[in-house]
Amino acid sequence: MSESRLSAVGAAAVRVLRALRWLLPALCALLLYLILPHFPQVTETVFSRGLFRGLNAVLGGAVGLLPFSLTELAAVLALPALIAVVVWRIVRYRRGKRGGRFWRGIAWTLSSLLLLYMLMHGVNFYRQPASELMQLGAASRDPKQLQALSMYLARQASAARELLPEDADGVAVPELTLSEILTSAGEGYDLLEETYPFLHGTTHRVKPVQLSHWWSYTGITGMYFPMLAEANVNIDVPLFSVPATAAHELAHTRGFAREDECNFFACLSCFSHPSPGFRYSGYVLAYIHCANALYDYNPELWKEAYACCSEGMRRDLRAQNAYWDQFKGKVEEISSSVNNGFLQAQGSAEGVLSYNRVVELLLAYYGQGGME
């Protein structure tokens, strides 16, 4: 092949590489997705406790300065922005302007967002499991142990509830205002990380979603948006459940992606929190998970555990069930299906059922005397 021919081929190759360079961030994300599941210790050290923490401190700290939810604002503006872009591009196309640079810019943005997602959340699916980090043994399979845990949680929740005021319907409300709940949600983690350093992280402001009532139709109580490192909570739900939800979303900001582990750490952080409103919320969340598992196994054992709930706690549980009953329908089913597919794509074989694996972690922690 002549020198001129080689030069032409080389120039063509360079043009192709330049045209496809927008793929580089996406390819990096794909490599992380394929490789990191096989190296959890590397993921733990280099990414979850290293790169993620640094990026989260900077990005989450900046976003946390704002009192409103950027995630909610982005969701509201997304459709109008998309329509505006499509109309604009149609007008430009009719004027003979192809807009190759514009579409390359869009491709770069999407590719970069995919890499940012992996670094701010995706990699944390592949870190060492919480059971290993805490050196928890295997959870007991004895139904009596699950009943004992359920009874313990019911008694602890009932005791914490006695310290709380009630609303006009006799439903418990935290002694803190909503603003105080959202700004103090990290205090339990600050205490926990003295024993479990892997929980170290920067506590960001938890954001209230103003369109929460409509959000409830999806069945979602909270959401961590990785690209903004922003924790968001539904504030239309019964207020006593908000502290545990806020603690769950903060678990994501501290480097945990699996939903079962975030529920588990939410419970532990609430147990450790100085506020009785947080402790009550955490004990109720843990009780619901354990009691539901107990009921599925043996309704008679569940009845004995339920008898340990105070009348006030039973009132709260009925109020919470009544709240969610009004939103059941197709939207919730679709939302659950989408969430299930997302979790499975991240390597959680159980999908949304992984939320219930919190019971195994609670049982193992209880069995080692962690709740004494």
Kindly list the characteristics that best describe this protein.
single chain; 372 residues; mainly alpha; three-stranded mixed sheet; 64% helix
Describe it.
With 372 residues, the chain is mainly alpha-helical. It is 64% helix and 3% strand. It contains 17 helices and three strands. The protein has helices at 3-19, 23-35, 40-64, 70-94, 100-120, 130-133, 143-161, 178-184, 187-192, 212-215, 242-253, 259-272, 276-297, 299-306, 311-325, 330-345, 358-367; strands spanning 207-209, 222-225, 230-234. It has a three-stranded mixed β-sheet. A hairpin with a 4-residue loop joins β2 and β3 (230-234). The longest helix is centred in the N-terminal third of the chain and has 25 residues, at 40-64. It is globular, with a radius of gyration of 24 Å. 37% of the residues are buried.
Q: What string, H for helix and E for strand, traces the elements in order?
A: HHHHHHHHHEHEEHHHHHHH
CA-based gyration radius: 24 Å
Helix and strand composition category: mainly alpha
Quantity of strands, as a count: 3
Strand content: under 5%
Report the helical percentage: 55-70%
